[in-house]
Write a structure and sequence with these properties.
Elements (H helix, E strand, L loop, with lengths): L11 H26 L3 H6 L2 H10 L1
């Protein structure tokens, strides 16, 4: 492991939860952005994804 010395500075019991928490927060932000900025996602959740996808391709 080429970054093994980082644990001399940050304790793994603190660093790993912070790292994994950061990954989770970034993932939630990206997923919210996709849900918020697409027009087809609402139709997909309502069960009309096929017609919404055809309309999106036709535009």
């Amino acid at each position: 492991m080429n970054q093994g010395r980082i644990w001399c500075v940050v304790n793994p019991t603190v660093g790993l939860p912070l790292f994994l928490g950061g990954v989770a927060v970034i993932s939630l932000i990206v997923h919210f952005a996709v849900l918020d900025n697409t027009t087809w996602m609402g139709a997909f959740f309502n069960g009309s994804a096929e017609s919404a996808a055809v309309e999106a391709v036709a535009e």
